[in-house]
Amino acid sequence: MGRTYAIRTFGCQMNEHDSERIAGLLEDDGYERASVLEEADVMVLNTCCIRENADNKLYGALGRLKAVKAERPDALIAVAGCLAQKDRELVRERAGHVDVVFGTHNVHRAAELVDHARRHGPVVEILAETVREDTEAFPSALPVRREADHSAWVTIQIGCDNSCTFCIVPAVRGPEISRPFGELVDEVRDLAAGGVSEVTLLGQNVNSYGRDLALSRRGSANGNGNGQARAGDDAWWCGSQWTSDRRARPLFADLLRAVGEIDGIRRVRFTSPHPKDLRPETIAAMAAVPAVCEHLHLPLQSGSDAVLKAMRRGYTAERYLERLRAARAAVTDLAVSTDIIVGFPGETEADFVQTLEVAAEARYDSAFTFIFSPRPGTAAAEMIDRFVPHDVSVDRYERLRRVIERSSRLANEARIGRVEEVVVEGPSKKDPAVTTGRTRRNTLVHFGSPPGEVPPTGTYAHVEVTAAAANFLQGALVDIEAPRAAPAQATSGRRLIPVAAS
Ligand code: SF4
């Protein structure tokens, strides 16, 4: 075996996708994947500073790797991601055994920086911002080592133009930059040709996708901007009605429609839209394009207008609910998930009760709930005089959890007796005799298969739901579709293979 690498990822899907790209770059450079981090020749920690305790987790992991480095001085330790972007030189000041530090704007340099460190010693390279012309800045434009063959993430936009007071993303990821429309469509077409049937479009605020492209195109047309449209986009622009459309195009809805129409793509997901930017066009595209899954992740954060204002979220609770109602009215069978923070600085009991009321009215299928924890460098971290006592936050968290669990359970129980299309994700982690899949509404389903007939990962199957809990469904396999043919002979025809009920 040649040189090896391993990556530990802390954080969100954007980070996981960045890790896939770092893996792809290292494999392109001849490295092979090791299954144990501590045994690899290159140990990468891809960090996140959004999640709680990110610093402790990173520096704890680096502390443990110090002994590994002492035993194998030739092994390299690299720290990447948001926390590296934020801490910069501090990473090496606190952990001098780290060899490479790079941030969120130069993921594409991972292999070069590792090589540089091997030849010349430690290197820290943090760029202040992404260069728009540099298509490699988008993780999706780099080589990839995907975790699943049937499913792929596609980064459509990096950065964020908002200024939510609890969030460090704008500081570490920079302003929004959308990836050119034509490039994205081409990439998804290539993915489909390679056997991918499910794509998840990623961005910090997917719904504002294209805003910067339209602005730069207008600047370009007026001769006073730095228009960055690329060849791939011109075909879309000139060959469509956009030329006569006075609105800013492309919209995120245009992308949903274009990606959803690609032959072989059966499921399109996206995360996350900002409630203030959830446009009617997006809802209409979700309703009109069969491939777009019936799932909307719409972060609420708080149900109190006062807290939403302090968070600088740009909507009221009623506005949020209005948009949710519009989405539910348009998209049949829509599942809705959310993010909620409890104990934001200044949150009173009355504010929190409003969050409970909105959560109950929203009837969430699932939610990520968090107790506020200050992120250094954010405005909310400075609101020390308004911090909510921890025991109060814990109590609120528990009360909210019960409200969410009730609606999740009810939503799942309503599925009993239905036959759901699932994509097989593999054997259950707890019981290998049980197969796990995911519905279009993004619910986990556990089901048994006759011995010797366990469908491979990526197979589309139909499962009759027989039982429900708050976080998953149980069911019985009805039939499976013939596994997709090798890409060269792939057809879009579907053949169902009935399975005897177990
Ligand atoms: S929309 Fe707000 S929470 Fe989301 S990434 Fe941007 S600043 Fe952060």
Could you characterize what this model shows?
This protein is an alpha/beta fold. It folds into four domains: 4-125, Methylthiotransferase, N-terminal domain (Rossmann fold, 3-Layer(aba) Sandwich), CATH 3.40.50.12160; 148-292, Transcription Regulator spoIIAA (2-Layer Sandwich), CATH 3.30.750; 294-414, Transcription Regulator spoIIAA (2-Layer Sandwich), CATH 3.30.750.200; 419-498, OB fold (Dihydrolipoamide Acetyltransferase, E2P) (Beta Barrel), CATH 2.40.50. It has 15 helices and 20 strands. The protein has helices at residues 13-28, 54-71, 82-87, 90-94, 110-120, 169-173, 181-193, 211-221, 231-238, 252-260, 280-288, 305-311, 317-330, 349-362, 390-413, and strands spanning 4-9, 32-33, 42-47, 76-81, 100-102, 123-125, 151-155, 157-158, 177-178, 198-202, 267-271, 295-297, 335-342, 366-371, 419-427, 434-439, 444-448, 460-468, 472-481, 496-498. α7 packs across α9 (231-238), α10 runs parallel beside α11 and α14 packs parallel to α15 (390-413). It starts with a strand and ends with a strand. The structure holds iron/sulfur cluster. Iron/sulfur cluster binds at residues 160, 162, 164, 167, 169-170, 204-205, 274. Residues 160, 162, 164, 167, 169-170, 204-205, 274 line the site of iron/sulfur cluster.
What's the story with the biggest beta sheet?
6 strands, parallel
Give the end-to-end Cα distance, rounded to a whole number of Å. Answer: 44 Å
Q: What is the level 1 CATH name of the largest domain?
A: Alpha Beta
Total number of domains: 4
Q: Output mean pLDDT.
A: 86
- Beta-strand proportion: 15-25%
CATH architecture of the largest domain: 2-Layer Sandwich
Helix content: 25-40%
Q: Low-confidence stretches at least 5 residues in length (pLDDT < 50)?
A: 224-232, 485-502
Please give the order of strands in the largest beta sheet. 2-1-3-4-5-6
| CATH fold-type name of the largest domain | Transcription Regulator spoIIAA
Shape: globular
Bound small molecules, which ones? iron/sulfur cluster
CA-based gyration radius: 23 Å
Total strands: the figure is 20
Number of helices: 15
Q: What class, by secondary structure content?
A: alpha/beta
